[in-house]
Specification:
By secondary structure, the protein is an alpha+beta fold. The protein has 2 helices and 11 strands; from the N terminus they run αβββββαββββββ.
Length: 176
């Protein structure tokens, strides 16, 4: 029986070359889909977070752990840690870009601020001094559901006696 080397097609609609090209494009599409699945399974397409640190001449250390890359509706880390050898003589005051909460759906602060106010472009939160040398703030938040792609820079600062003594700037990208 002779071997048929022809590609079966409806010749009125497509020739053999067109069928081979279409098959090639389907294979490329499936390979790309497989690549996305492998990257997702490896955890390479999820939230990315990092920690930025600033130190002041007065011995304060400000650390901000934040999302670098996130998607709408996902829980995101936002933690602020302030260290000062010898503890804190007064309240811990943090100044945060007012546009940051617009990106998040905040649930709660841990701990809750004793006082809060707003200035032009900044939210200022005052916390009671913690026992010991370390103050930790965690915000329970999700990326707001209506965020469909943006990249902005935000600032968090430690304020002592009305002066910023340490500040951290960071960029967060919200992908669609």
């Amino acid at each position: 029986m002779p071997e048929n080397t022809q590609v079966a097609t409806l010749t009125a609609f497509r020739d053999g070359d067109a069928a081979r090209r279409a098959r090639g494009w389907r294979r490329i599409g499936l390979a790309l889909l497989g690549l996305v699945l492998v990257l997702g399974a490896a955890g390479l397409l999820g939230i990315r977070s990092t920690t930025e640190t600033a130190r002041s001449p007065e011995g304060y250390q400000l650390e901000v752990t934040h999302a670098q890359v996130t998607r709408a509706g996902l829980a995101v880390p936002f933690h602020v840690t302030v260290r000062h050898p010898g503890g804190f003589d007064g309240p811990v005051t943090l100044s945060i870009s007012s546009s940051l909460p617009e990106r998040f759906d905040f649930q709660n602060f841990y701990p809750n601020p004793a006082k809060e106010t707003a200035t032009e472009g900044r939210l200022v939160y005052e916390f009671d001094p913690p026992p010991g040398d370390v103050f930790r703030l965690s915000l329970d938040a999700r990326t707001a559901p209506d965020q469909n792609g943006s990249a902005d820079t935000y600032r968090t600062a430690l304020v002592i006696e009305g002066q910023q003594v340490a500040k951290v700037g960071f960029r967060m990208v919200v992908v669609p």
